[in-house]
Amino acid sequence: MSTVDVYVSKEQPSIADDDSIKNAFYDAPTVVTLFAPRKFLYAESDACVAAENMLLAATSLGIGSCYIGSAWDSFDDPFGHETLQRWGVCTDYYAVLHVLLGYPKDPMDEIKARLRKGERLIWV
């Protein structure tokens, strides 16, 4: 079940009246937040790999996508803590990143494979 929460920053209340600022999520209809265990060494790396796969899969389906890092600060205030509690997110987990998904307003250009040259790429 999804919920919609509206929050205006107390530090910058003027942004609520600025029509040029839609929202931090570019009006995406779907926002996926990836959470990970706080004490897991590879939490961020694993979340990034999962996000990359989501972005690639979305693109292959003609769905626009955007990666937004530093999701933890989205929940780093009393309202954010309350939201996590309401969503049932365990306190041992933190938000790593957001993935925005939606159909783009303008069609995406078709990506064409480039012709390969005979050179090799060697990583040292």
Describe the protein's architecture and organization.
This protein has 124 residues and is an alpha+beta fold. The chain has a domain at 25-102: 3-Layer(aba) Sandwich (NADH Oxidase). Helix content is 23%, strand content 19%. It is built from two helices and three strands. The chain has helices at 43-60, 78-87, and strands spanning 30-37, 64-68, 93-102. The chain has a three-stranded antiparallel beta sheet with strand order 1-3-2, covered by helices on one side. It starts with 29 loop residues before the first strand and ends in a 22-residue tail after the last strand. The model has no long low-confidence stretch (mean pLDDT 84).
| Helix/strand class | alpha+beta
**Distance between the amino and carboxyl termini:** 48 Å
Mean pLDDT: 84
Top CATH class of the domain at 25-102: Alpha Beta
The ordered string of helix (H) and strand (E) elements is EHEHE
Which fold name fills CATH's third level, the topology of the domain at 25-102? NADH Oxidase
Kindly report the name of the CATH homologous superfamily of the domain at 25-102: NADH Oxidase
Tell me the fraction of residues in β-strands, as a range: 15-25%
Contiguous low-pLDDT stretches (5 residues minimum) are none
Strand order in the sheet with the most strands: 1-3-2
Architecture (CATH level 2) name of the domain at 25-102: 3-Layer(aba) Sandwich
Report the biggest beta sheet as strand number plus sense, adding barrel if it closes.
Answer: 3 strands, antiparallel
| Cα-based radius of gyration, to the nearest Å | 18 Å
Total count of strands: 3
Our count of helices gives 2
Helix share bin: 10-25%
Overall form: extended
